[in-house]
Design brief:
The protein is of the alpha+beta class. Helices cover 27% and strands 24% of the residues. Strands 5-4-3-7 form a four-stranded antiparallel β-sheet. Strands 6-8-9-10 form a four-stranded antiparallel β-sheet, covered by helices on one side. The chain is rod-shaped, with a radius of gyration of 39 Å.
Amino acid sequence: MKPGFEIRGSRQGAARPPCVCGPRQRHVLFCRPRAPVPTPGFRARAAGFTLFEMLAVLLLIAITVSAVSLQVAKSLGGARVNAVSRDLVAALRYTRGQAIVHGKEEIIQFNLRDWSYTVPNHAAKKLPDGMELKIRTAAEEQVDDDTWGIRFYPDGSSTGGRVTVIRGQREWRIDVNWLTGEVRSHEVAG
């Protein structure tokens, strides 16, 4: 038997739905039943979405997009601090390497007025906007009120110190060991 069709026959007492067969199809075994007739009080609804449903979906999309964009913005800010910290670590290690290779003292200078640093034989490199530097080093490495340095010696040692890169709540510390000249960095939990 095909689904959606019924067999015509004479079942006593069984109510059959009315048939949509034409006048010439009276004696056919299979017949399509008529579409259901709505009960009183039932109102047929057109297919589609209401304005309220559309607004609810748009509101959910807006909330999701704003949450994602905030997370992306935070990630980019953290990535910038991370990148600047890596650049500073590389600059410090480069300065140490130059002192060892050339057999003479080399100094990297940090200008706290311009938020920049200068590697030997290179132009000053400025930090991106919104970033700050803090430096702790030996008192004799102060060039002027706003300029401080970390000196590296031919044997690899240094005057030592700490450079802190700050942007908003993110903070990275770069430590220079005075005895070995080793440069390490880590993020400060905050």
